[in-house]
Write a structure and sequence with these properties.
The protein is an alpha/beta fold. It contains ten helices and ten strands. About 45% of the residues are buried.
Length: about 300
């Protein structure tokens, strides 16, 4: 039987947490729902959270860089692309400044159509396709995917709700959106909609791992294999003591409340890997909390707030 020890973790005992702003995405996306879950548990632990709705990952990294957001949820491939561009064009190493606070979950690539003649990605050639808001992470990933297969489309920059409306009316031929399933905008579609598959043996998994969307996730669709993008919570590499304390408290709050988030929050919490170490790209104060939490848990101790 595991020993259970009531511990008062140091970061909960010391000081008052400053308010944190977190850049998310549109209200109908998964980022926003995840941030709402975080806000709920964090504020119970005395950590004020302000949620900022945005157009997605590109907006978020810009807000983070400009100091207009403390934290940002984003796709990891967006960070990599921005880092490559900045290093090539300006000699700036973004990864020295932008750091991962927590790994979150894999975001599934949704490619959806109604036309029964559109069943694979290659059949989007020349079609009108919604790819998410302009400069969003979804639009970036769609651009990378389509370029990799040599598919040229007439891109439409709509958020999921508007894209579904247009697809239903026949104003567009398909939509591409990257989000943690279930994406709220796609939950109540009817069986006239279907997923579009990727060409086999594409080598795509070298960049985007394969991921199954189970039958239970979307009632209108059977089990489907797609690809996915890792999502993370980012911060700037800041060292102010009050900020460090607030982020450490937030990380610990998420770790301690993981079971609660699994049972009451967005279904993606069940697939999240918040306890995994971000490594060299991680924000060191957050890494320290994750490392200590994992060590104590592995020895059979339970950390609870007194």
């Amino acid at each position: 039987m595991k020993m259970i020890l009531t511990l008062v973790f140091a970061v909960f005992c010391y000081g008052h947490a400053s308010a944190l702003t977190i850049a998310t995405g549109s209200a109908e996306g998964t980022y926003f729902k995840i941030a709402q879950d975080i806000k709920q548990i964090a504020e119970k632990d005395g950590i004020p959270i302000e949620i900022i709705q945005t157009g997605g990952s590109f907006d978020n990294i810009n807000l983070l860089g400009a100091g207009k957001a403390d934290l940002a949820i984003m796709q990891l491939d967006v960070l990599r692309v921005v880092a490559e561009i900045m290093l090539k064009e300006g000699g700036i190493n973004v990864l020295q400044e932008a750091k991962v606070v927590l790994n979150l979950y894999l975001e599934e690539i949704h490619v959806i159509a109604k036309d029964k003649n559109i069943v694979t990605l290659n059949q989007l050639q020349g079609k009108r396709v919604a790819v998410g808001p302009e400069k969003s992470g979804s639009a970036l990933t769609a651009e990378v995917l389509l370029a990799g297969f040599g598919v040229k489309i007439d891109a439409v920059f709509d958020a999921p709700d508007e894209a579904v409306r247009k697809l239903n009316k026949g104003d567009i031929d398909a939509l591409i959106f990257i989000g943690g399933a279930p994406v709220p905008a796609f939950q109540n579609l009817d069986k006239s909609f279907h997923f579009v598959s990727f060409p086999s043996d594409s080598g795509l998994e070298q960049i985007y791992p394969k991921k199954k969307i189970e039958r239970s996730v979307y009632p209108w669709a059977d089990e489907f294999e797609t690809h996915a993008v890792p999502s993370v919570i980012m911060t700037r590499n800041r060292g102010e003591s009050d900020y460090v304390l607030s982020v450490q408290k937030l990380v610990l709050s998420i770790l301690i409340n993981k079971d609660y988030l699994d049972s009451t929050g967005h279904p993606k919490w069940k697939d999240s890997f918040v306890r995994s170490m971000p490594g060299n790209v991680g924000y060191q104060p957050a890494n320290e909390v994750i490392e200590i939490y994992n060590a104590l848990d592995n020895y059979g101790y339970r950390i609870i707030k007194k």
